[in-house]
Amino acid sequence: MTTSTMDVELAVPEAYWTRTRKTGAVMIGLGLLATIVFGALAGSENARFALGENVSGAGFDIPGTAGAIIFGLVALVAGVALLVTGKHFGVLTGVALAGFIISAVCWQMSVSTVSHTMPLGFIAAATFTAAIPLIFGSLGGVLCERSGVVNVAIEGQLLTGAFFGALFGTITGSFWLGLLAAAVGGALISAILAVFAIRYLVDQVVVGIVLNVFAGGLTAFFYEQVMRPDTDGYNFPGKVPSWPIPVLSEIPIIGPALFNGNIFSYGSLIAVAVITIALFRTRWGLRTRAVGEHPAAADTVGIRVLGLRYANVLLAGLVAGFGGAYFSMLSTTGFSKYMTAGAGFIALAAMIFGRWHPVGAFFASLFFGFFGALTGFLTSIGSPIPSQFLGMLPYLATIFAVAGLVGRVRAPAADGKPYVKG
């Protein structure tokens, strides 16, 4: 074994240990904060966790002060274990974060003047709903970047999809045609990205940022000129209907989230399954991954590298644009300027957090969606935490996840690298 090989083998564990030790120290800090501060601030009331979608019905109680302290200690112990052993990074980090969050929730509910109950079914449903556009956006990112094209334009694809969905859904009077138009709107942004990134070899990150600004300005202009003067004629697509599945929708906690949905919720689950199978079980998926890892080698065996990249970037736009209709056809009943509010960038983070895998991106989206749901819940119970800070929670979770939890991940080798044949 050569000296250079030994250096490489030693460098990876050392880097991993450094990251693990730092994360463990952070978790110890969070555990101490929860144990001491949350425990001291918690009230005498019990924090009740109801299993359904409302505050009544079956559930269980946790004493506010004791719960804040006990779960803070859980976070503290998990952080110490991570720091000392350097093993089981994902499990111990998850336990520490869960302990910290439950401690904070116990504190907040015990001092609430509105309600001391958290309906877990409602939180689960709100988490999944908040994650829907992130799921579609991150899947669009996976399709692009697995093909070797960086997709920073997810925000623009979502926003254009929301605009097209509202406009054409209103004009045609059909939410189905509105959804189709939303997908086309996202594909239009992707088409511009593909031409500049693949044909003209422009820096892909720069193109993505420019397209986000372009989509924001263009949709804002047409909103002011067309939609705002005549809302009923151009900006009232209506809400997509819900289709609960009998029996399954009554399952505690997960029933309201997974089985009392709509075209977006069911569609997101189908999209994750289909794209996962297609990427890892089909010839198209093998070729896509080959193009994203080593396009020159793929070219030598007859794969049309540029053609496949064009097709996949357009497909990514269709997926993200469809998800963008969530904002104007489910979250609200109309389009407003810049209504995606950075969801595309959170979706980009979910893709990275999920390690460029559709299933990983799905769970990462749920992670970020949970903090959105938690923000809404804490606001509704009159949390003493300033609303401005609560509104920051999803974005803070994004920064924390990407900077502190992702660690050593590798994007597809050819991601962001233009390919010139020959």
TrEMBL record:
Alphabetic keyword roster: Cell membrane, Membrane, Transmembrane, Transmembrane helix
GO molecular function: transmembrane transporter activity
Record-linked InterPro entries: ABC_transp_permease
Domain of life: Bacteria
Subcellular location: Cell membrane
One cellular component term from this protein's GO annotations in UniProt: plasma membrane
Chain ranges passing through the membrane: 24-42, 62-84, 91-110, 122-142, 149-169, 175-198, 205-223, 263-280, 310-329, 335-354, 361-383, 389-407
Name of the protein described by the UniProt record: ABC transporter permease
